[in-house]
Every structure is written in C-alpha cells, then in structure tokens.
Design brief:
DNA-binding; 5 strands; homodimer; 10 helices; five-stranded parallel beta sheet; 48% helix; Rossmann fold; Arc Repressor Mutant, subunit A
DNA sequence: ACATTGTGTAGTATTATGTCTACATTTGTT
DNA sequence: AACAAATGTAGACATAATACTACACAATGT
C-alpha cells in the first residue's frame, strides 16, 4: 500500500524537506504526516497547534512548505498569509481547510497562498496538491479553476459564489459576524471603529443582497456546507 | 511506536469487531483507521461519506460501533442518533466532531450517544474514548463531565429540547426572529410594544442559553432537525 | 495619463435595541 | 384555597447600531 512517488521534481533542495503543519486537530495531523511520508519519503515535519506557535516556528527554522488550516486557534483569516511571508518570503503555503473551497479559495489565492486544498479531498488529490505546491505550481481543484476562469464575464450567467465580490476586509468582518460577534466586538478585534464595521456590514449586505444576519447566514450556509 | 493496547475487556464479541466510520473527510478517516488498528489490532472497518450511506450500511451489516461526525452531508443533527438506533438498537455511537463539545455534547448524550469526542482531542484521548465506548462505558471529556455534574437539576433524564420551555408567545417571537424580522417589525406584527418584544427576546435567550441570534439559530437547528 | 470604481476608514446625527423595573393575569402546586 | 412561579405587557433610560456623508488611496480601464 506504499505509494511512494519519489522526490518532487526539480529538487533544488539538498537537505531534507522541512514542512510545518499548522493544524489543531491531532487526528488530521496524524494522517497528514502519514501521507507526507508516503509521497516524500523521510521528511522533516514540525507541527503547530495555534497560529501564534506557527509564527514562532517559522522564525526559528527555515521551511519548504506550510500546510495551514484556516480554523486554527488565534487564526486571523487571510492576514495569516502575509504574516507568514513576512517571516519567510519564499515559503510555500498550502491552505488545507474544511471551509468550502469555492467560497474561500479565491480569496486566499489572491492573498498569496500557493494552493487551496479542501479537507473533503480524497487521498489522491491531497497528494497531488502537496506535490504541486512543492514544485512551485499553484494548486486549485478543477472546480475552483473553472470558477476562476468563468467569472471574467463572458456569459451573462454566473452562478458563482456571491462571496467573490466581497473585499478581503469585508470577508473578514463577515466571518466574525457569522460567529455571532456583535459590531462592537468586531471593531475591537480588528482595531477599527464601530462606524467602520457598520460600513462593512452595509456593503456586505448589499453585495450579498440580504437585509439581515439571518438571511446572510442562510446565503452563506447555502454555499458552504460545513466548517466545524 | 506501536501502541497496541489489546482487545477491549469483557470481549463478548467473538467475531472480528466491526466499526463504521461516518466521516466525509478522507484525511480524518485515514488517521482514524490507523488508530483503530493500533488499539484493536485487525479490525473490520467500513466507511460512509454521507449520513444516508451510513443508514444503508447499518441496514445490511451488524456493527459494534459507529463513529459519527456531525457535519456529515445529509446530516440531521441529533435525530441521527434515533435513526441509527432504529436500525440497530444496540449499536454504540461515538460522536467525533469538530463542534464545540461544551455546547453540543450534552445534547447528543441526552439524545442517546454513548460518547462525545472532540476532534481537538489528542491521540491518547481518542484511543481512550474508543476503548471506553467499546466497553459500554459512556465517554465524555473531563470538562464536559464537570459541566454535566453542575446542573444537577437537569441530571434527571430530561431529554427534551429547550424549546419546550418557551411560552407560546415566546415561541411566536422566536419564529419571527428566525425569519430575520427585526424587533420593530415583530412589535408591529404582534401589536405589542417594542419593549415587550425585547423582553421576550431576553427571556428566549435565557431559556435557550444563548447570547445572540446566530447561536439561537444553531440551537434551534439542532433541535428542530433537518432541512438541507 | 486620466477618469472611474473599489476599498478602508470615520464622524455625526438618528434610530433601534437592550436593561431594569413593574405589575396584572394566568397557571401550577401543595 | 393559598402561594409561588410563569406569562404577557410596558415605561424610562442607557447603550448599541445604522445612515449618510466624506475622503484618501489603490486598482483598473481607456
């Protein structure tokens, strides 16, 4: 059952490949390590169970790849990409998340991730994604690839996720809103005024064509089955 | 690194232990199988990627244990317990979910689950949970155990939904709230003052033990079952 | 290079909502 | 029957949220 695929091509890396798993769920880390060993052979894997911890690890060690879960404790949505890159500009970042890819992938790719892999992906797809990113290719599922291609408006019909039209900041606010945070709380968390949060809220509602939280909840739920 | 613990005690089961993993994420299934093999030795594992599929499998095969993720496609919150038991009354059910245990565990235990294991649990805890449930013990984390102990008033088999404690008027207001109506609108519709609506809202939140609309939404979803 | 749209951010005035308190009616309980 | 708890309802007052408006700066289109 060993599916050792061999070293990834163009192997510029002479020392052992070093990978950081940023993932709070032990059960996921276990299987990920297994898969990494299957496709890469002996490999140097470090783990973080919070985003803060991952920053520390990046600061003290050079990594080839970071596999990043989005629902990590201390997570800061798309800012995480920037913060990781601020420490190691060249590090490859593969998002590995349970959040619906068609909803979130475009945003994270835009923010600079090298790939977005959903946890719904089968075994083979996971391997493909890891190898692709290690070879400096961008990884997205075919679904998302089509989605990204489509929305360059050729057909009047686009049944893409409405979330695509949200700006990064709006996205961030929406996530917090979806967690049940109130305006004031969000303002504090993002260190902006309540007024600004209100503005985002208004714009989000407009873009999503909803008029209240519940409708928004339903609309997003529609596209994003699960995440917990 | 093999942590084979041996057969679980009181092994009434002569044939090979049969386990059903109801889990949409391949990555989680992989590690779970690994762990099961570590603690139980050779074991007969089946997998379902949707709740519907799991019902089919239960109907055609006898299982010792079902490990059930709550965010499974076609999932129906706590009704799933009843439906599984309707097919195999004696089957042990261990919830294995990423949802916050202190919020959800009590409800699922009341609904009849044999244990609630969070995906945040470390390796060792996962093993403990599986073995406990296979030995017909109820498994909960120590956190939740304390939580359950606290409200001794509810300790007595009260396995109904908190929605039952709402008065008719409160129920009415809640329904409107769930439709996204705002306070003012509800007041108009029910021909009472805004102030009264506010009072109901407060009482509803108290009874449901939630602090905002989103939590309320989730809680109600939990008890009033399926739709998607 | 210039015009336009999108994005991040707030101030202020206005409006909505929540909190605390209160009280008359039911309803439930010994 | 007698008393306690739950229910339906509000007023006064305090706090929170929104609508407008505005503006700088980035991104994009022509």
């Amino acid at each position: 059952m060993s599916t050792f695929v061999g070293w990834f091509s163009h192997s510029q890396i002479s020392t052992m490949t070093k990978i950081l798993l940023v993932e709070a769920h032990a059960i996921v880390r276990i299987a990920t390590k297994l898969i990494l060993n299957e496709i890469l052979g002996p490999v140097n894997i470090h783990e973080s169970q919070s985003f803060g911890a991952s920053l520390d690890q990046l600061a003290s060690d050079q990594f080839d790849l970071v596999m990043l879960d989005l629902t990590i404790p201390e997570g800061e949505s798309y800012h995480m990409i920037q913060k990781l890159r601020a420490i190691q500009p060249g590090v490859r970042i593969l998002i590995f998340s349970a959040k619906d890819e068609s909803l979130y992938a475009p945003h994270y790719l835009k923010a600079g991730a090298n790939g977005y892999l959903t946890k719904l992906a089968p075994d083979a797809e996971i391997k493909k994604a890891i190898l692709a990113v290690l070879n400096d290719e961008r990884y997205v599922s075919t679904t998302v690839r089509q989605q990204l291609g489509h929305n360059t408006s050729t057909t009047g019909l686009n049944h893409d996720s409405p979330l695509q039209y949200l700006s990064p900041r709006e996205m961030e606010v929406m996530d917090l809103l979806l967690k049940g945070k109130w305006t004031k709380e969000i303002a504090g968390e993002l260190k902006i005024t309540i007024s600004s949060v209100s503005t985002y809220k208004t714009r989000i509602f407009e873009k999503l064509e909803v008029s209240n939280l519940i409708e928004m909840f339903n609309k997003v739920q529609l596209y994003s089955g699960s995440q917990s």
